[in-house]
Amino acid sequence: MWDVTELLSEETIDGGKEMVQGILEDVVDSAVKVAEEKQVTEPGEALPALETADTLLSGSSNENVQTNGIPDDGQSVSSTDNLETDVSGHQAAARFSHVLQKDAFLVFRSLCKLSMKPLGEGPPDPKSHELRSKVVSLQLLLSVLQNAGLVFRTHEMFINAIKQYLCVALSKNGVSSVPDVFELSLAIFLTLLSNFKTHLKMQIEVFFKEIFLNILETSSSSFEHKWMVIQTLTRICADAQCVVDIYVNYDCDLNAANIFERLVNDLSKIAQGRSGHELGMTPLQELSLRKKGLECLVSILKCMVEWSKDLYVNPNHQTSLGSYKPSEQEMAEGRCLDTGGRRSSVSSLDSTVSSGVGSVGTQTAVPDDPEQFEVIKQQKEIIEHGIELFNKKPKRGIQYLQEQGMLGTTTEDLAQFLHQEERLCSTQVGEFLGESSKFNKEVMYAYVDQLDFCGKDFVSALRIFLEGFRLPGEAQKIDRLMEKFAARYIECNQRQTLFASADTAYVLAYSIIMLTTDLHSPQVKNKMTKEQYIKMNRGINDSKDLPEEYLSTIYEEIEGKKIAMKETKEYAISTKCSKPSVANEKQRRLLYNLEMEQMAKTAKALMEAVSHAKAPFTSATHLDHVRPMFKLVWTPLLAAYSVGLQNCDDPEVASLCLEGIRCAIRIACIFGMQLERDAYVQALARFSLLTASSSITEMKQKNIDTIKTLITVAHTDGNYLGNSWHEILKCISQLELAQLIGTGVKTRYLSGSGREKEGSVKSYASAGEEFMSLGFGNLVGSGADKRHMASIQESVGETSSQSVVVAVDRIFTGSTRLDGNAIVDFVRWLCAVSMDELASPHHPRMFSLQKIVEISYYNMNRIRLQWSRIWHVIGDHFNKVGCNPNEDVAIFAVDSLRQLSMKFLEKGELANFRFQKDFLRPFEHIMKKNRSPTIRDMVIRCIAQMVNSQAGNIRSGWKNIFAVFHQAASDHDGNIVELAFQTTAHIVTNIFQQHFPAAIDSFQDAVKCLSEFACNVAFPDTSMEAIRLIRYCAKYVSERPQVLREYTSDDMNVAPGDRVWVRGWFPILFELSCIINRCKLDVRTRGLTVMFEIMKSYGHTFEKHWWQDLFRIVFRIFDNMKLPEQQTEKSEWMTTTCNHALYAICDVFTQFYEALHEILLPDILAQLHWCVKQDNEQLARSGTNCLENLVILNGQKFSPEVWGQTCNCMLEIFKTTIPHVLLTWKPVGMEEDSSEKHLDLDLDHQSLSSMDKNASERGQSQYSNPTDESWKGGPYTNQKLFAGLLIKCVVQLELIQTIDNIVFYPATSKKEDAEHMAAAQRDTLDAVIHIDTEDQGMYKYMSSHHLFKLLDCLQESHSFSKAFNSNYEQRTVLWRAGFKGKSKPNLLKQETSSLACCLRILFRMYVDESRREAWDAVQRRLLSVCSEALAYFITVNSESHREAWTNLLLLLLTKTLKISDDKGARFRLLPVPV
């Protein structure tokens, strides 16, 4: 602040007493004059009266003022006391509460007027009375303002005095060429801005726009003036309230200039050192100005930081890991988050920003609504862009503004816009109005119609008309404009008598335009005289002349003052900025004085224009203003800081730039402005030289400081950095490399491999690849100079200083204080940088990988929700690193994983959580993807160590452990398989015993793992042991079903009763079926045995619907045969595994018949049917055998429905296995040969006699093996067909025997035939024969209906075989084609055995008293069968054929003889063959 006493003492020394006395006399004279003036003023011109007296007390103590604030009666001023308030005679009536207030007003006004007195011509004399009086008056005004009390700051009279007198005085003195006057004016303005800004919105705008910023922008202003302005701006920019208020009240006001934006742009240009030489400054002056510019920009950003500090959370003041970070919405609401942390934001930036000293105006306060201001700012930007477009192409600008809703569509709206918007280019307005299109004409008419020419003389009206635009150059356009003007003028002045018509006005207007051009254009040499002008206008008034006096007056007025066309403000500025550089200092000063004079004139006019205006002023309070403020100016700020760091090595400049960048990053971070934040962080990274293309050998102190700033930003703003962590961590990675070089570290530390010879010159070459990224790869070749390398180490040595190293470490140790989102971003980008480090094929670096391990340790105690997000990123990174082709890297990754896992597992885990599973997943991934035996072995050993030491804490992690062992189980490396299996066996036999409840969730994974071991063909012993362990697992399920039942986990939709099945039995049995389907014979046989052992041992605990699931598994054994495989493997499978499985299935079904027959019998019958249909004789035989066993063992329990199903199945099997093709097959291209119709009987006899003598014995085919040599050489198609037909024939025989065995029990019929033969030989056929086993058959459990079904099968089979045996021609064809072998094919056994079984059943039924109701049907069928059989036998000629019927005939005769007389009469009439 300015000290008045000091100044007065100086003046006293210089003889200033006279000057002061003169000043005081002037003041007294003015006061006396005012006192003697009229006391009554016009009420219409009065200022508003003050409401109360007690609100207007002066802030200074006064003996006449009472303590309660009420003045003495004698000192009060009556309501009739009035003051002259305006130089031009305007008066106001206001009541002062005290006479001293009136005196103060008069003194203040007098001082203002005194300060405006002009100085003498020529250079000002410092000792002149005028200058000294001006300086003292300004000093006194400053003192008044600085010490003003409450009354002066709020009383309407004083506020208006400031507006009408002081601001006008400042507009003149603010452009003074005298430094003292200029400096005092700036000081007064600062005081006004601090204390009175709420009342002076428009005046402040004028001062900024017309004086401050113009002085900064003009190229001719002196360094002293610029310096003083920028000094003042430094003070303004240090006040946060003031800075935000400027933005809110001007940049967010549609009718105000963009003061804040323009101010920052101007300061940015100064800070960048632009136009320094043009201004004629010395380099030192230019540097000083640059520093001041930077200081202002930094102050502005500090103000923004200060303003928004309540939104900042300093992570270093957080006490817990990953504390909650509020959303942006919550922050915008200004919630109190962590006051202590926010208070430190300023100190962390070494801020010296004041908290603001602006007072809030009472009568002009406007609510602070950030959203509303942002909307206004957006509208303003739209309007400005529209004006910019208009000034290039009017129609495009209008269209844009209309599309944005900022301009109406009517011609009146457009005309009003052209009138009111002063920023439009006058030339473009003129061109637009002069266009000939209908639309343009309508706008022009509306434009002119909105002008009021009433009572105006013609020249004045024309001046008003042409003020708004520049006339276009085209005559036709001018013509249209003048025509409309004339019409409008006559319309507004209809009472005038001078012009006969509008034509007169039109011609006269044209002539005035021509006169103006002629008189005032420098191109016209011979100027028009008055007489010539009068002569030119003769006869224009309806063929008459206008009065000569009138035309003379027009000529003289135009000669004295040309018709001026208004320029746009932007146009004027652009012209000024584009002025050429001044040749010398004298010219510059002259030009500057002219510019200052014009500035003063403009500013004074504007100040006077707004002296009575009241504009609402908003005192900003909301934090959210900072976001749009920063968004508006971040680019010029970045340009200034970047240029400063790039081009200037001055430490102070670098310090300011870095501080500014740091503040900018803070603001961008707080408000989540990603683009801006990333841009500033990238700038820092670039100037650190760590990631730039320039060489690190060029590193200077400013680059070191940049690195430190970058580290500080990471430390203080880590919560907000997001993707910017990438740049920071890249720099830290490269910094570590620079530190290695700076400290002369050995190459092995650079490469991470430790395989290079220490201290060799080659060591630098080996790291050349990494050095290239730091910009000095050309220095690390084999011929690198040691001295040069030493200088390199010196230049980057400071990067290894203790402070830098500690600061970097602090970033990683401080990661525990980052919030939940920030730590994820930090980790993600650290992993990305680590991948870049490891990308080098020859010398990968593991700095970042080590840091990842470190921060994993540090952050492991975070809440699980945050930790799982962190580990999702880190785990994925370990997945990639663990599969790195460089084994050293992979080993480090796996070992780090092991250490982290051991620490993590120590914490344990509650039931139903999955954190361990997520944590251990990288082991699984590495095992799956990395084929290196070393790494795979290491993974297995790590897992084994975890199991041995932390088994009690493992829960969900068991899944990963078994997944790893599952991968190892299929390995070909014996050591890996053995170690994995040993650990798996230990888990199953020991750990499950102790911790089975904790491992239930992974029980099926354990079984699956054992299954994989069992399927590894390279290690058969392991396979067998694995199956044994699976059998061992069944014991756990059996012994602890309740544990499984109570376990919920992720199968909540499974009923509690079914959990034992889903999590216990099913996985075991399913994996055993997989073993059966995948493994070789010995292993799968063992698996099959164990599977059915488990069923038989524990099946009594199974629910019915479990059995359905189980048999779906079991039947998968047969599915294997539906896949195309080699014939030999398929044949082996059918003969062994399928055969074994069929019998085992029947055993299980029999054992658990009660539980299974309702749900599984149809499936089992269908499976047996499928087996019988296969082209495998052994499997087909097994199918029929199993069917037989199934029925014999369980038939007693069969219900009629079950018997029905069984009989239907047999019927289906019979039908599908009858080899009908035998009767129709013909070789391809076979021709009928008549000789073949007469078959050789001897040959036929031979074929029949060669029939197997033991054909009745079970288990042998009626044909030789299909692989018989005699037809092996035939075509493959025939072989395959014939093999299938032979199997069908076998099945038919097997089925006949099966029916016989089921009905009469196995071997019963054979014994009976032997007894009959013996009886016939003794001639005692009528003797009673009893077989012990005949009552054990199923006959007595079967209904007649079911027996008739079986009889249908037998008769159909008999009929087919009989037809085939009788078709000698077809048999010969087949024989010749290679079917059967050495003799002709026949079906004698099928023919006789089917008939014999049929007869036994019928005779048994016929004598069964319990089946009396079916006797008639039996009798009819029996007579029919016997008649047909005997009739057929009579026709048989072949001896061997007749011999085959021997037992059959014996059976028939014996059974017939034993029938009682009343029943047997009809049978005895049958012909008996001799």
How would you explain this protein's 3D organization?
By secondary structure, the protein is mainly α. The protein contains 67 helices and 2 strands.
Note the topology.
Blueprint: H1 4-13, H2 17-36, E1 83-84, E2 91-92, H3 99-115, H4 129-146, H5 150-154, H6 156-173, H7 179-195, H8 201-217, H9 223-237, H10 240-251, H11 259-271, H12 283-307, H13 328-332, H14 339-348, H15 370-392, H16 394-403, H17 411-420, H18 426-434, H19 438-449, H20 458-467, H21 475-492, H22 502-520, H23 530-536, H24 548-560, H25 569-577, H26 585-609, H27 626-647, H28 651-670, H29 674-687, H30 701-716, H31 725-742, H32 747-751, H33 762-766, H34 768-773, H35 786-795, H36 802-813, H37 820-838, H38 847-859, H39 864-881, H40 887-906, H41 915-929, H42 933-950, H43 957-969, H44 974-999, H45 1003-1014, H46 1020-1039, H47 1041-1046, H48 1059-1078, H49 1081-1098, H50 1104-1114, H51 1116-1119, H52 1127-1151, H53 1153-1173, H54 1177-1194, H55 1200-1217, H56 1221-1224, H57 1241-1249, H58 1269-1272, H59 1276-1304, H60 1308-1322, H61 1344-1366, H62 1368-1376, H63 1388-1406, H64 1415-1435, H65 1439-1444, H66 1446-1457, H67 1461-1468
Antiparallel strand pairs: 1-2
Descriptors for this entry?
single chain, 1474 residues, 67 helices, 66% helix, 0% strand, elongated, disordered N terminus
Head-to-tail CA distance between termini: 156 Å
- Look at the structure and give the mean pLDDT: 75
Number of helical regions: 67
What is the spatial order of strands in the main beta sheet? 1-2
For the report, how would you describe the main beta sheet? 2 strands, antiparallel
If you compute it from the alpha carbons, what radius of gyration comes out, rounded to the nearest whole angstrom? 57 Å
How many E strands? 2
The SS-based structural class is: mainly alpha
Low-confidence stretches: 1-17, 34-93, 323-364, 567-582, 746-773, 775-784, 1231-1274
Shape: elongated
Level of helix content?
55-70%
Strand content: under 5%
